[in-house]
User: What shape does this take?
Amino acid sequence: MTAPSKNNPFNQPVTSVTGLGCVTPAGLGPEALWNAVSRGTSLLKPDDRGYLLGAVAPELKNQLREKWPLPTKAPAGPHKPTQLSGVCYSLEAIAQAMYQAGWSELRSDDGLIFATTTGQIPVWEHAMMQFLTRGMDVDEFSAYFKHQPLALTLNQIADALAFEGPRQLVTSACAASTQALAMADWWIRTGKVRRCLVGATELLCDLTIRGFESFQLLSSEPAKPFDRTRNGINLSEASAFICLEASSPASRVLCHLSGGGLGSDAYHMTSPEPSGRGSFSAMQRALKAAALQPSQIDWLYAHGTGSPHNDAAESAAIQALFGRELAVSSTKAIHGHALAASGIMEAILAILAIGRSTILPTHNFVSAGDDVTVNVVASAINKPLKHVLKNTLGFGGSNASVIFSALSEVS
Amino acid sequence: MGAFVLAAANVGSDDVSGHALLPEFRKSSLGMVYTHAAVTKLLQATPEAIAKVGAEQCGIVVGTSQGELGSTKEFLENIALKGVARPIIFQNSLHNSTLGFLTLQFGITGQALTVSNGYLSGEDALSTALLMFDQGLCHLCLVVGFDLLVDSLEPARDLFYPYGLKRANGAGALMLADETGLRRMNSSVPLAFLNNITVNYKKRTLTPAEVSENFNDGHYEADGIAKLVTQLRASSACSPLVQLKPDGMETTITFDRL
Assistant: This one.
């Protein structure tokens, strides 16, 4: 436990970040992702329908499947799935994070929180259609379909780590992994666990590509978050994990997770409430949890998908709470929108940014639309960052925000 | 840590017969129909509960293993068979769609999230709610667990369960409150005080006798809440409630009757 302080008035454990790991369209590890974002190197490629997507390179996918053999495999045959990658990506990202944190294992008093929107759906969505149109018998289909439950990835991760402690899975759409971070903070603050591995994995799949296409939300151009000419999002896939601890040697701590907040729009199933009230509430609650004032936030790392409605609503919420001066960025123009994994993947960038005193730029932003009234940053800014707020907005009106703070700012 | 149980409700297929045809559910999934019915039952005794506590102070947690699998199937089937991608069905197809629907219908703007963890989905939703109270994040919380059958996929899903296990559609819901929420509710008399939920994550294969004894009345993955509802309603039943899951895991819910 720590002594009460201005930032920790209730004397709860301080949640420290000690390890980062990811598999993204940039390749392996946080550095690859940081380099792509800071240099403006697009990770997006067109699919056969012309939409720009961020996919993990096929050769890397194969390497990871060789590196992390799975306990169960889909049957060979004419309907062999094209990928079984969710667990492979996850284990790779976990290995990176745990190595950096100096964790040799997950103990039974640790925690594991995972987030995903669609789990391992690429394994079974095509097989399901074959089965329903009588192109596959039930026994063969069941070998694919047993990968349907979202918790399967969570349990396979737990099994691979020989972990028998508490675990949960959050699936609140695009806000899921940010909610998972907030939940991990709650677990540590309440003493439920002293260490927690938090992560998310999202894979590109027909369901989400065709689904977002049906909403006319996909773009064949790189996303232009907050820009006047923004016209849609680019989907991507990623796996990202973070190691959190109640206390650890200062030499291992990258920064602190100061607080998280959730909020609900209660407005529409897919469109955000125009004033961004749910996001406003989430950010406000994160500030309260971190015992911070809006003026203490140095950078707001936005959700900023490039969709007309999302960016407008998020801008309204940011302006209402922080005013028009706070630096705001989105990096989705480079790496795309990884749905449930976006929050934690971008949280990794936020954590690196704190360490490097750099506000990341919003690529492809030229000028704000009339519906965007915040200070969107188009170029990188070198500036010491004490507190950074990471924002996410999701379908179903789910919103979540988390705040990361530099070591010097938390007792 | 802990919370007062103010209301409890279970919903089965009989409770929602015909609901899906009502105009207000025209664009809804079956999961939305079930969970809406469960929350409506919760609010029957205190329709103004959310308003009394304040919408921003009301949280909601939904736990489900299969989520909106039926809508996922329907969306992909429409594309495969008719070449049509229907956005309304896609918006209903995510696990989080049900939560979004409930917050919309009941005007809940507090902390809201969806959890999914197989047979533990109900208990995880409850644990999350207790955590939220412990952190002072809400004064009232609705906790809903649901799972549904998808007829055309059941021949495949049947293979994943122990032989003899009877499955069904269902939703269970609890209205929880802390002391502040209880005071704002004024006239509500709590059913119980929910203390703690623990999980034994060790899996094993059940014997046929265990399957027959524990799962003979229509099981669904997220029925941990529904079983607690049944326990709270049984005048002779007492704490703790120990639940055996089809994969051998066990949960223990402790509570005090009030």
Observations:
- The first strand of chain A starts at residue 15 and ends at 24.
- Chain A has twelve helices and 16 strands.
